[in-house]
Amino acid sequence: MKQSRFMSALETTLSTAAGFGLSLFLQWMILPLLVGVPIPLHTNLAFAAIMTVASLVRGFVLRRAFEAFHIRRPVSPFMSAVIAERFRQIEQEGWSTEHDDAHDRGELARAAGAYLLHAGTESKTVPHEWPWDGSWWKPQGRRRDLVRGGALLIAEGERFDRARKGRR
Q1: Is the pLDDT confidence value at 144 over 80?
Q2: DSSP 120
């Protein structure tokens, strides 16, 4: 997914702040050993500050260049909608990984399949593929049903991966 300018700046700032601290510490520890003379704290702070500003500018410019030149694989609006729906299911509906893991094998996939197969039919008739109580069947139009089906498929795939990891 494409990163906003604000998130680019925030990520770069946090990364650079960590780099500032590390730079200052290493200058304090290593430089006196290399040059054989202790370097005053204010000199270390000034040098670390200069390098921090340079690092901030470099990080931000490179991040924006990567975005501008589409060096990352672009995510379509539909893919973004599916990912957003998956996060909505977790954050707003409370369908945690523990909840998903409690479902029978393939149950989430059957629910996904029902939404995908019947997307846009707007029929209130519960399809035979639907694994849960009929009150949970809530078609909402072709695109919305495709998005919900995709998000449920992601939930099943994630459940599968967690179960497979547990077997090793």
Answers
A1: yes
A2: T
* Predicted structure pTM score: 0.61
SS3 104: coil
Structure tokens at 60: 């931000």
pLDDT digits (tens, 9 = 90+) for 70-102: 766 778 899 999 999 999 999 999 999 999 999
Distances (CA, A) of 84 to 1, 136, 154: 10, 20, 11
Pull the structure tokens for residue 44.
Answer: 């270390």
Q: Which pair of tokens denotes residue 66?
A: 């990567």
The percentage of residues in the chain with a pLDDT greater than 70, rounded to a whole number, is 96
- The residue-averaged pLDDT of 38-49 equals 85
The pLDDT value recorded for residue 64 is 83
Q: What's the burial of 48, exposed, middle or buried (CB within 10 Å: 0-12/13-18/19+)?
A: buried
Distance between alpha carbon 109 and the CA centroid of its chain, in Å? 22
Cβ within 8 Å of residue 78, ≥6 positions away: 143, 146, 147, 150
Measured between alpha carbons, how far is 96 from 87 in angstroms, rounded to an integer?
Answer: 10
Q: What is the DSSP string of 3-71?
A: PPHHHHHHHHHHHHHHHHHHHHHHHHHHHHHHHSS---HHHHHHHHHHHHHHHHHHHHHHHHHHHHTT-
